[in-house]
């Protein structure tokens, strides 16, 4: 039994009265005197937890709400999200409100262990007292307890030393500014609070530095999540969202698609399905208004917005071929996809039935145009590759959309052939890819520099340690 297991068995059940007494003792705002079993407060907490998308990581598919167990693939290894139901043995039933606040704002759990930043506490550090209080009420009284413990996380040395997060936190955990008075509905200040703290946009849309922390000098300038590009969403009209209207941004966050701009796939599709599509319009308006104020960052090499690209205009006349309708959620019908490397034939068989032979999409754009489409106009082919490999599954506020995954049915070189065809004729002809790059994305994307350097750093660290030891032994020897 590991130390953390022993500790988790010791999680004591504290009564709500104790927690309430504690928060009163700590002199938290008057709102905290509100009874945590108050249905109004619990409903408010549920809305906050939805905006903060706790379920994205803490609910496995299939699995009970918030029972944890979801495996998050970090460059350091697999980190399991915890059970945060009010179970006193497997979950957070024994947490006081202060301990709950510490887990969210400081990344320290009730056992005093440092959490890995896979739990976005650097964003939640800015949570207001009122939002913590409401969420605490929801997690203690609005969520069903589940006694199934989530799997233990075992990272390799040196990441298994949780205390090493203390140093990382000193550098990168900047205490938030819990607000005394919440920002007004629909205001830019409310939008900033939602974007930075609750909806944690920057955890995906800000690039990471060599220590895998957000690079604040490129705030919202574009990051990489699970091998997908989370594009630049600063106010820059060329690289960012400067060319989107506020209403288009609201529609995108609410439904996941805006004709002539783009669609949400990958983890953005998930965030929209589980979180953003449930936010009140005033909150979406506030986020959009705030994004418009974010200082512009121009990505080097960008000359026009990604949605402006519409290919080279030299689409070859396609010979009549029977289109192939893939079926089933997990893939196209492999037997009917031709075994060919001919680009036009592959596109006709795999894509044209929905996106149409000339890539213009269907009327009403349920199957969207591939021209004037951000995913196809970006300066990187990665999101186009990912959507072919993984498909797209999203439930927005308007409708559910599904594009089948072709990962199992197309080889790396066939995917690369289709990507180059689509980029050339419908998107940004300067963007091309190779089978080797498709293979790299299939296997989880590029390894961050820190992880590539780790064997050397460890070797160097070991060498320094050895030198210190030799010196010490010599010193002790001399004294004797
Ligand atoms: C991006 C993924 C992600 C999101 C979003 C997220 N968490 Fe977590 N959370 C994790 C992971 C992973 C862990 C375990 C970290 C570890 O083992 O160091 C964790 C741990 C925790 C813990 C500590 C549990 C314990 O006993 O050790 C609490 C409490 C918690 N999360 C609450 C929340 C709440 C409340 C929300 C929403 C406001 C939330 N989390 C959103 C990934 C996430
Ligand atoms: C879990 C990671 C994640 C979070 C959190 C997240 N995004 Fe995204 N976002 C992405 C990814 C990945 C894409 C690319 C989707 C695609 O092209 O299919 C994206 C795309 C977008 C786009 C479209 C940009 C374009 O150029 O096509 C906008 C706008 C956007 N996100 C805004 C936001 C805002 C605002 C928030 C916070 C309220 C947010 N995102 C939170 C991952 C995330
Ligand atoms: C069964 C119909 C269907 C087929 C076949 C299909 N798609 Fe899609 N595709 C969709 C739907 C639906 C969407 C999402 C529309 C939305 O979000 O509103 C989509 C979205 C996309 C996007 C935007 C993704 C993003 O993240 O922004 C691209 C690019 C794309 N498809 C390319 C392709 C290519 C290339 C092929 C052939 C390999 C293909 N599609 C085959 C239905 C299909």
Average pLDDT: 85
- Please, how many domains? 4
Strand content: 5-15%
Give the number of DSSP strands: 8
Uncertain spans = 1-31, 320-335
Looking across the biggest beta sheet, what order are the strands in? 1-2
Based on CA atoms alone, the radius of gyration comes out at: 25 Å
Identify the bound ligands.
heme C
Shape: globular
How many H/I helical runs? Answer: 20
Order of helices and strands: HHHHEEHHHHHHEEHEEHHHHHHEEHHH
What's the main sheet like? 2 strands, antiparallel
Structural overview:
The structure is a single chain. With 480 residues, the protein is mainly α. It has four domains: 3-172; 188-305, Cytochrome Bc1 Complex, Chain D, domain 2; 307-442, Cytochrome Bc1 Complex, Chain D, domain 2, CATH 1.10.760; 451-480. Helix content is 41%, strand content 5%. Helix 3 packs across helix 7 (129-141), helix 9 (188-198) crosses helix 13 and helix 14 crosses helix 18 (412-426). It is globular, with a radius of gyration of 25 Å. Residues 1-31 and 320-335 have low confidence and may be disordered.
